[in-house]
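Hi, here's the filled form for the chain we discussed.

Project: internal
Contact: R.S.
Residues: 92
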Amino acid sequence: MDLPTPDPAVGTAAPRVVLYGRAGCHLCDQARAMLERVREDTGEAFAEVDIDADAQLREKYGELVPVVTVDGVQQGYWRIESDRVRTALAQR
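And the returned structure, exactly as it came back:
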């Protein structure tokens, strides 16, 4: 599953932060709550991707969910530190 490509006509870019997870995953719920707090503080939105909707992502991430990436770089899995996400966001 690919993220949307930015549309120059609209002027929006794909989110820098992506949460890969699956339904019924309590750690995914915790990661989502952490990313909501980061969004409130930084204004940086995030996208969610259900790995079970894509065989390649399910193969890649399997039982590692949740996985969080910033600018395509994995920041962690299972229990993701908000400080790590914030640091990655600040590097741009």
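Let me know if anything looks off before we file it.
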